[in-house]
Amino acid sequence: MTDTTMTLDQKTGQQAAAAPKEAEMPPAIRPATERDPLRARIEDFSFYYSNGFQAIKHVDMPILDRKITAIIGPSGCGKSTLLRSLNRMHDLYPGNRYEGKVILEPEGENLIGPDADPVLVRLRVGMVFQKPNPFPKSIYENVAAGLRVRGIKKRAVIDEAVESALRRAAIWDEVKDKLHGSAYDLSGGQQQRLCIARGLAPNPEILLLDEPTSALDPIATAKVEDLVQELSETVTIVIVTHNMQQASRISHRTAFMYLGEAIEFGETAQIFTNPRHPRTENYITGRYG
Amino acid sequence: MTMATEGSLGAAVQTDQTAFDAVRRAKQKDIVFATGGLIVMAIAMTLLLTLIGDLVIRGAARIDYGFLTSYPSRLPERAGILSAWVGSLLVMLVTAFLAIPIGIGAGLYLEEYARKGWLSNFIEINVSNLAGVPSIIYGLLALGLFVYGFSLGKTILVAGMTLALLILPIVIVSTREAVRAIPRIIKEGAYGLGADQWQVMWSYIIPAARPGILTGAIVGLSRAIGETAPIITIGALTFIAFLPPAPVTPDFPLISFAWLNDGFTVLPIQMFNWVSRPQEGFHIAAAATGVVLIALTFTLNGIAIWIRYRLRKGYRN
What we know:
The structure holds 2 protein chains of 2 kinds.
Chain A: H1 3-12, E1 38-48, E2 54-64, E3 68-72, H2 79-86, E4 97-104, E5 109-110, H3 118-124, E6 125-128, H4 139-149, H5 155-168, H6 172-175, H7 188-200, E7 206-210, H8 218-231, E8 236-240, H9 244-250, E9 253-258, E10 261-267, H10 268-273, H11 278-284
Parallel strand pairs in A: 3-8, 3-9, 6-7, 7-8
Antiparallel strand pairs in A: 1-2, 1-4, 4-5, 9-10
Chain B: H1 2-12, H2 17-59, H3 65-69, H4 82-113, H5 118-130, H6 135-149, H7 156-180, H8 184-192, H9 197-226, H10 229-233, H11 267-275, H12 280-314
Helix pairs in contact in B: 2-12, 4-7, 4-9, 4-11, 5-7, 6-7, 7-9, 8-9, 9-12, 11-12
């Protein structure tokens, strides 16, 4: 089975719900039609870095409204690259190129289209990074940052939004007495929840989490996981993780990526208990990583 | 069998006398290097302290209220540095006013806005080169361009402009380095919230880079305050027995810029002038001027260190 034939198979199988399986290494499985409401659709999406490297190859993936979509896969498979494409992070560095579509529902706006302003996209799609990156400001100002960016100046509005975001991020009780203290005095786990609160404060339509617990200890990780699950009742979440247990614990849908391709997408339970693609099975059973 | 396995392992990695010897030799090298460094540093510090000590011993006693508030005189015991320190102060004011905003602006532009390519590389290399150009070259440029080309005369304004040119590369380079030192994840975090470039610049980059930028600006100014060659080249006067018009006036609009177009002298020139006189009294006055100049330079550097310390405390991560 060569890559060329796989790509060809992918192309032809794109319209049909599921491509016919082959004996040893079938083509990537296309996402089945979703009955749940969508928040975004990734269609035939490719991404090229400025050095010409194609990090994402013709990915199709639905993003369900107010559900958690996990992207898993071995290092270098393009999962973070895909996530960072969703709020146009790659536009910060010259020479990077997108192809295909990322349609935001229900408006049908293409986030990577030529008319889409990356700054406006980022106002709608928030992001939490791998390493906690609070700003060198007070806790309050960290959470207020997204509102100030949007030109909100009314003290009462900001106060309310800061408290509500900190409550939603389940960190209010820990910081309510030191809102004007430095964010750097918090522990790593608290800093990461602060960063989630910062992402939540401006009420984004989608919140992207890029391996949000990779720098945290197990207790802090558990707190962030609980928080993410709670948040999914109100906001659409896409999370990249190298931790398969995490994906299986918290997500509703899981996508498995390998070498820039989306190999399989489905309900999390199905991906982890009954993977359809041998590569997915190999990965989740730990045969390679 | 077991013996053979151990033998083959042992051949690859051996922690025996050879390894201990290697560590001991490395330690000896450390000691030799540290001693050498200490000696070189001691020589440099002794030389510097001797120079300063010599100035202080000869000149410190000469510094009193009268010395700071008198004009130069042909009598060494009545000579003072009033016009020189006021001149230095006003020239520094012009230099700071020109070099700091332009330098910071250029540095931020080159680092954040300019397209990265051969042109920006070319500019980067040349800005660094400019920092190493001998200061008298700047003096010649200023003489040709400002004094004769623009007919601005030998004024405080021209001196300030010349020194601003001189320290511009220092300010630009330190601004760029300060901006470059900001962690990428902080910038990405700000952009990730939907901030545009202007907001990221004002709310995140400039505050975080402020300690580095200010340090560069002050280091530049403390270099400018001691410069003599370019100021002599543009033709500063060496004997001035008057002060420029005051910048603050009693009538509306309360601020006057007439001083910009006045002749001037500065501390290093006053010192240079007195050193070249035959009388012993002037040599003492020159030493005293040197002490004042060194004190000013140290104060500026001290402020730079203090700012760096104070502002860095808030930006630790």
